[in-house]
Write a structure and sequence with these properties.
- The chain is an alpha/beta fold.
- The chain has a domain at 171-360: Uracil-DNA glycosylase-like domain (Uracil-DNA Glycosylase, subunit E, 3-Layer(aba) Sandwich).
- Helices cover 35% and strands 11% of the residues.
- The protein has helices at residues 5-10, 14-17, 20-28, 113-122, 142-154, 176-184, 218-223, 229-241, 268-285, 295-302, 308-311, 329-334, 339-359, and strands spanning 34-38, 41-45, 103-104, 202-203, 209-213, 250-254, 289-293, 315-318, 321-326.
- It has a six-stranded mixed β-sheet with strand order 4-6-5-7-9-8, with helices on both faces. A three-stranded antiparallel β-sheet has the order 1-2-3, with no helix packed on it.
- The longest helix has 21 residues, at 339-359.
- Residues 200-347 form the Uracil-DNA glycosylase-like domain.
- Keywords: 4Fe-4S, DNA damage, DNA repair, Hydrolase, Iron, Iron-sulfur, Metal-binding.
- InterPro entries: UDG_Type-4/5, Ura-DNA_glyco_family4, Uracil-DNA_glycosylase-like, Uracil-DNA_glycosylase-like_sf.
Length: 368
C-alpha cells in the first residue's frame, strides 16, 4: 500500500517518493487542481473554486512545487492535462460533479532510477534512513540496506586493501646463495623472455683472480656455465700457461647473466640491470686482480667508449680492484696473430697480482 502523503511530508520524503515526472506534472496542474486527502491517501483533484490555488485552501505548497508563472488560472482557460492523475478507483455518485471526482493513485509512480539514486546519494550515508533501499523507496529489506550503507561508509570492498608484496632486500645485502637465487629469478629486462637459463658464474668463491667476459653465448645459455666450447678450451690453456686452473683460485663471470639474441651487443638498460649483480660478486669475492676479456666487457666495466687497443697495456681499476684488459678467447680463435698480444696482457696481469700480494701483508678479509 502506498505511503500517506502526510507521513512522507512529515519526514521530508515526499520529493524522494515521487518521481520527477509526477512532481513536474503536479506543479503544472496546481493552478487547475488541488490535492485532496481521501482515506489518508494522497490524491490529485481539480480546485473546487475557480482561480483559488492550494495555498488559499489551507494546503501549503512545498518549495519545490511552484506553479509556472505564465499559467493562467481563470475559469475560461482550458484545464491542462493531469497526466499524474489516474482513473478513480470507485464509481462517482450522481451528485458528484466531474470536476470534483478524485483520481486515486493506485500505486506510486514508476521511479526514475537515475534521479532518485542521485538525490539519495546526495545525502550523507549516516543521514539516509535505514528503511529506504538503494533506490530511495521504502519497500526494501532494512538489513540489506544497513549492510549496503555500511559498505559505503567504509569506503568500498575490503578486497581493495589487499596486502602488497613484501619488498625484496637490496642486492648489496645478499650472500652467495641468495645472490645466485636472485639472478636465476631475475626479470628486470627483456632478456629473460628468451633465455634458457641464467649464467651466474663458476669457480672458487674465495679466489684471488676474477675473470669477466661479455655475455653468455649459445652453449653457455644451454649449460649455465661461462666460457664453454672452443673459446672455453682456449681460456683453459691460457690459464695453465699462467699457472692457474679453472675452479682453483679463479672465479669466472660475465657482465650479463642472460644471453642476448643472436649474440648481439647488450643494450644500456640490460647492462644497468645486471651491473648490481657483478658488483656484489666483486664485493663478496674481494679479488686481488680482475682480467676483463673483450671490448664490450671492458667498455661496460670501465664506462668508456675507448677501443680495446687503447685500453690494453695499462692497469685500470674497478671497485678498488686492479683491472687488466685483454682480448676475448672467441676473438682469438678468429684472429690467431693477436694471441701473442693476449699473452703480453696475461703477463701484465700476473705481475700486477704479485705486486698486490707483496703490498698486502694481512690475509684477504672475508666478505660482508
Amino acid at each position: 500500500m502506498p505511503w500517506p502523503k502526510a507521513i512522507l511530508e512529515e519526514f521530508g520524503l515526499w520529493p524522494v517518493w515521487m518521481s520527477n515526472d509526477a512532481v513536474a506534472n503536479a506543479a503544472t496542474a496546481t493552478a487547475a487542481s488541488s490535492i485532496a486527502d481521501e482515506g489518508d491517501v494522497a490524491t490529485l483533484t481539480a480546485p473546487s473554486t475557480p482561480g483559488v490555488g492550494m495555498a488559499e485552501q489551507g494546503d501549503e505548497l512545498p518549495p519545490w512545487d511552484v506553479a509556472p508563472s505564465g499559467l493562467s488560472t481563470s475559469p475560461s482557460s482550458p484545464k491542462p492535462p493531469l497526466s499524474a492523475a489516474r482513473p478513480a478507483t470507485r464509481p462517482s455518485s450522481p451528485g458528484d460533479s466531474p470536476a470534483a471526482a478524485p483520481a486515486r493513485r493506485e500505486a506510486p509512480p514508476a521511479p526514475v532510477a537515475r534521479e532518485s539514486n542521485r538525490r539519495t546519494a546526495d545525502l550523507p550515508p549516516d543521514d539516509v534512513p535505514m528503511w529506504l533501499d538503494s533506490d530511495g523507496y521504502g519497500d526494501g529489506d532494512a538489513a540489506a540496506d544497513a549492510a549496503l550503507w555500511s559498505i559505503v561508509r567504509e569506503g568500498g570492498d575490503a578486497g581493495d586493501d589487499a596486502p602488497s608484496q613484501p619488498k625484496l632486500p637490496g642486492v648489496e645485502t645478499l650472500d652467495w646463495e641468495a645472490l645466485a637465487e636472485r639472478v636465476s629469478n631475475c626479470r628486470l629486462c627483456g632478456l629473460c623472455e628468451k633465455r634458457t637459463q641464467t649464467v651466474f658464474g663458476v669457480g672458487d668463491r674465495e679466489a684471488d683472480w676474477l675473470l669477466v667476459g661479455e655475455a653468455p653465448g649459445q652453449q653457455e645459455d644451454l649449460q649455465g656455465e661461462p666460457f664453454v666450447g672452443q673459446a672455453g678450451k682456449l681460456l683453459d690453456n691460457m690459464l695453465r700457461a699462467s699457472t692457474l686452473r679453472r675452479g682453483e683460485n679463479v672465479y669466472i663471470a660475465n657482465v650479463l647473466k642472460c644471453r642476448p639474441p643472436n649474440n648481439r651487443d647488450p643494450e644500456p638498460d640490460e647492462v644497468a640491470s645486471c651491473e648490481p649483480y657483478l658488483k656484489r660478486q666483486v664485493a663478496l669475492l674481494k679479488p686481488r686482480v680482475i682480467v676483463v676479456m673483450g671490448r664490450f666487457a671492458a667498455q661496460s666495466i670501465l664506462r668508456t667508449q675507448a677501443s680495446i687497443a687503447s685500453l690494453r697495456g695499462r692497469v685500470h681499476e674497478y671497485e678498488g680492484v686492479p683491472v687488466i684488459v685483454t682480448y676475448h678467447p672467441a676473438y682469438l680463435l678468429r684472429s690467431l696473430p693477436d694471441k701473442a698480444k693476449a699473452w703480453t696482457d696475461w703477463c701484465l696481469a700476473r705481475a700486477t697480482y704479485e705486486a698486490v700480494c707483496e703490498t698486502t701483508q694481512d690475509d684477504k678479509p672475508t666478505a660482508n
